[in-house]
Amino acid sequence: MFKRVAIVGVGFMGGSFSLAVKSRLGCSTFGMDINPEAIKRGKELGVIDEGSTQMLALRDFEPDLVVLAVPVGAFEQVARGLKEVLDEKVLITDLGSVKGRLVYMMEDFFGGYFVGGHPIAGTEKSGVQYSNPELFKNKRVVLTPTQRTDRLALQKVKFMWERLDAFVEFMDPFVHDVVFGAVSHLPHAVAFALMDAMEKLSKKTNIDLFLYPGGGFKDFTRIAASDPVMWRDIFLENRENLLWAIEEFIQSLEKLKGLIENEKKEELIEYLQRAREHRLRID
Ligand code: TYR
């Protein structure tokens, strides 16, 4: 099993991963971040053992696993940097929300030693101070191996996640992006858009509507407090699947709007009943 783990991106996800492998697998961890504050805080809080803002420092740490926990828009630049300082055959994995093309891009750098990973875990919080060693417990982790993925590397990464009490599932990288474009990226986009609409409605009514949040509004928009850079990168990286899902959502909203406008009592009940049943099924 891995003993020396390097984490690129010392935020909430990278920090939680560091704490988890430290406490559950007894690993020593090295954090790398372009923001010196993140390294400083990470070390102070005991989230990472060592850290640096310089990629070159990884050379001395000699990791046996490197985990990318940066926004997906930074993957290529990070990969280029890592390639220069890492030994060949060091395993690389990631925690990114988009796979597809990115997985093949990473393979161009690291061949079969890159294993794409996506833990379906997290909150709207960002920053290393929120790191939680139990974050991955009983959560699903999607790994996206390809023809090229080294089988031993894949087994090791799978086994590692299982030791953190996560459930591992395999998926094709492009299928992954269709699935999470719909179930994750669309809801985040809609939550951000709802806040935008609320801001406009506040201006038009001259009432600060944000002063009157009910439980529904809070439940629905919790994820609109998520990190903007992370989500910008996800939206752009998975834009085709997301645009397709947004289009479908717009049609659903138009449909609902039409039923309300035309006072279609029966059809409204049907529409709401179907939605309610789907919601009741998922937990
Ligand atoms: N933001 C989600 C939440 O708060 C967590 C999450 C985000 C999970 C991105 C996965 C992911 O790719 O529930």
TrEMBL record:
The name this protein goes by in its record: prephenate dehydrogenase
Gene3D superfamilies: 6-phosphogluconate dehydrogenase C-terminal like domain, NAD(P)-binding Rossmann-like Domain
InterPro entries per the UniProt record, alphabetical: 6-PGluconate_DH-like_C_sf (IPR008927), NAD(P)-bd_dom_sf (IPR036291), PDH_C (IPR046825), PDH_N (IPR046826), Preph/Arog_dehydrog (IPR050812), Prephen_DH (IPR003099)
A GO MF term: prephenate dehydrogenase (NADP+) activity
Entry similarity comment: Belongs to the prephenate/arogenate dehydrogenase family.
Presence of keyword NAD: yes
Listed pathway(s): Amino-acid biosynthesis; L-tyrosine biosynthesis; (4-hydroxyphenyl)pyruvate from prephenate (NAD(+) route): step 1/1
Source organism of this protein record: Thermocrinis ruber
PROSITE patterns: PDH_ADH
